[in-house]
Write a structure and sequence with these properties.
- With 369 residues, the protein is mainly alpha-helical.
- It has two domains: 60-221; 230-343, Helix Hairpins.
- The protein is 66% helix and 3% strand.
- It has 13 helices and three strands.
- The chain has a three-stranded mixed β-sheet.
- A hairpin with a 4-residue loop joins strand 2 (109-112) and strand 3.
- Helix 1 (13-28) packs antiparallel against helix 2, helix 4 (62-70) packs across helix 7 (131-147) and helix 7 (131-147) packs across helix 10 (188-199).
- It is rod-shaped.
Amino acid sequence: MTSPAVRTPRSRASRAGRGALVAVAALAVLAQGAVIAGASWAVANPRPVTDAVTVWTTELDPTIERYAADAGLSDRGRFLLAASLPQILPAERFEQFCTVSAPGIGVLGCYTLDDARIHLYDVTDDALSALEPVVAAHETLHAAWDRLEPRERSALVDPLESALAALGPDHELVERIAGYEERDPDSRIPELYAIIGTEIAGSANDGLGPILEEHYAAYFDDRSRVVALAQQVQTLFAQLDEQLRQLSARVDELSARIVSEQQAYRTDSDAFAADLAVFEERAATPGGYRSQSVFLADREALIARQDALRARRDATNALVDEHNALLVELEALNAEAAALNQAINVVAQPLEETAPPPEGAVETDPSGG
């Protein structure tokens, strides 16, 4: 969903210094003693001061405020989101900050380490409105991870790995995390941290377990809200994917059946035509049929074969009509999938091309008809 931050961190000392001066100057109006204590604390803790000044001096976009509310972020979660100066960007600007050159990967947001900012892709499809709060919360957790002490991060590694293992080896997250690692070997735990916190409910009894649930509770008043939104979007794509696969399989099945039926029909039709020619030649030859009953029996047998061939032709043509109607339906579903993929910044990965029967409908009437 999002790309790990890959830029090299740079010093924030000068920026933090300016922030500290603003904060301390404001306190100086109130009490001189507070200036001394505040200045000392700010030097030792530049990051919290920078965050506080950023939040105090920046008005959060109302749309991003809504994302925070919909995702169930706590005051601390909202603070980190605001401190990361989040911006919603159209595609052409978004790619200046967040890029992943991998097919089938939809990058919808990123947290850039060099400037500690959150960048969000502008998802304009109303069908995917549930996705944006999930991405905002995901990136907020990246901001939270960036601010954790090394010992705090280390304490979360085993619980995160256990939460992933509990999902089972076939869960889609296993493959997704492997994709992150392939692009950046150091991204496994930070991405697990952000994804599990926003997308995984855990067990019905204790969620993700006491360690993770207690940790995430600092950033969410109700984590189930963001998980429900994530599952809503996942269900939408899973259902569409299943529809596409079932429809594609049915089209392929019909195509193979039609080709087989057409080949068998032509073989049997040629045999019928040959037998009909023999019958007509024999009937036209004086003395060819010495018995009226034999003539009538042969004639009736040929008529029955002709009727059977016509029925088979009509049945095959009905299959062709069904096949072509399904192709239209498949094309519409593909267009829907392509639109959704475009909306989430993905180049679609097509299924194997489904071709119509090579020779179309059976039009030829059995000989003699």
